[in-house]
Amino acid sequence: MVAINNRKRLSRNRKKNAQGRFISKQTNTQESDKEKIKEDWELLGLTSDDMKNVCRKLNLSWKKGADSGLRGVYQKDSRTTKCCQGKSDKSNSVSNVTSHSILSFSGFEVQKKSTTNCEERIKKEQQKTAMQLKMQQSLNTISLQISPKISSQSIFNAQSSYNICRLQCVHHFLTYSLQGMNKTQASAKAANELWSNPSSYRPYIIQAWAKEYINFGFISPHRQGKHAKRSSLLNDEDVARKGYKYRANKKDVYFDGHERTDVVEYRNEWSKRMMEYKKLMKDFTEGSIIEPNLEPNQQEHVLVTQDECTFYSNDSKRDMWLMEGENLLLKKNPGMSIMVSEFQCPCHGTMRIKGWTSRKLFCAGQNRDGYWDHQDLLKQLQEDVIPLFESLHPNAKGIFIFDQSSNHGAYANNALVASRMPLGPKPADEMEPFKFKDTTYIRDEELHVQAMYIKKDIIQERKNGKSKLKKIIYFKGIQKILEERGLWMEQDPYRQGKKWRLSCNDDEKPDHKCCARHLLANQPDFKKQKSALQETVEQNHVFEMYPKFHCETNWIERYWSYAKKEARANCDYSFKSLQKNVDKFLDSAGDIKRIQNYYNRCWRYIEAYSLGMDAIQAMDEVKRFLRRVKAHRKIPEHM
Predict the structure, then answer these.
(1) How far apart are CA 374 and CA 433, in angstroms?
(2) Which domains occur in the chain, in start order?
(3) pTM above threshold 0.70
């Protein structure tokens, strides 16, 4: 038997109560009273009165501060106690939020359960029912995705086998879950059925796929092996959501500036005018021509478009069949060029009578034909295009339409343009090539004719000392023109104490009085000044300009694209070959049926813009019209 220690021996000797607990020792108050210690004066047999008399005789009194030299009694907690109390308070505040120290604060209450067990059970049942309904909807959706489609253009055929397997796993998981299995059993069974090699990881990933599909309706693309550690802005889904896409910069619709406020305002007015013109034009549909219904006093309208394009001798096709490791060396520069300016109508394409055509070839560059300007275009229009049009379309009015390049908006040399005029008189010979035409203006409700030139008598001295009177024609100058109209000002209204200047080189003020040129340019006769092209066309026909950045409304752009394709396919990198074959490439692209298809497509854009659509809506509307029936016994997709 093992010997007991001192602690156990003492515990055996102590008294216990009926419950087995130790009884504390009782103190004897009577004995403590008897053993009370007596004072010294009591032991000597002295009374309290004797002690008081002695104190009076000795004249003893208590001195204030007599005990200052004595060490006082420390009545606060020790440093060890404070340290222990601080640790306990800190642990209570962090780890035990329901401790006595927090509960002791006034206003603190332990929240009671707001719902009973029965209500909680009903709430869980409702959540379970809602989840089952959501799972059933996801199951129906994914069943359509994994069902095979008998079509070569189906999205299902373009998916990888791994993505299809993931969708099938989610389909099996949802099916088993709705049959009553828990998620662990359902995911394990789906993994065993669809994967030949077992893995403990697949049931967990199937649950993750199912959760993502239920919440978002899709499973994220598989990222393994796609450099997931290299983050790129192009991989951000927000970039795709905002409409950005990494693609080749092909010429289609210019979105930069396409929806600018001033452009949209002009487009809305222009498209409505064009739709009015179209009522008097022929329709070309499926190889047939529908004549317009004309009133006795109405004239048939024909749309004529114009544009320029440049072909280069070294412009070859970009894509070709090459062997592995083969690299075809291409020319580094585009080579010599040929510029083409062409007018087209939808009924003839390139207008021509034998060798007389509405096409002009031009070799642009220094030491060649020079550079194409509005004078060259004006010459082509006057000598070739308008006579050809009137010969091919007798009794018809042409709607000649151009893009808004600076070349097409240039003024004639005799136009009233204030920026070309000096302030004071100047000899007409020094003003070449400008020869300003006379004009009219209204002053005091009367019409006045104003000449731009005056004759001055100049006395010239000869070498022999004799003088000769010579008449020289002078341009009046802006000051004289404004004085005759009563508009000249000596003092500048915006610069106190300074003379009125010719040009302020700044934006004009609302009253146009910031400078002489701005004031003259805003006079009615100067504001009505038309460009050289417009003056030429409007003698017998109608002049129009496309909206800025709207090349989709000009069918000749697609004609250029097809011609460039032919030129690149037959490129042999020589200017001589290009010069010989460029007409052949253009004639190949100018098939009349193809031109009419391009023409009809552009009208669909114009019609969409006339209804107030923007660029995206117009593109969708055009695509809807371009859809065709791909099989018999089938209703078209747009119907």
Answers:
(1) 14
(2) 118-224 (no CATH), 261-317+333-410+531-626 (3.30.420.10), 418-527 (no CATH)
(3) no
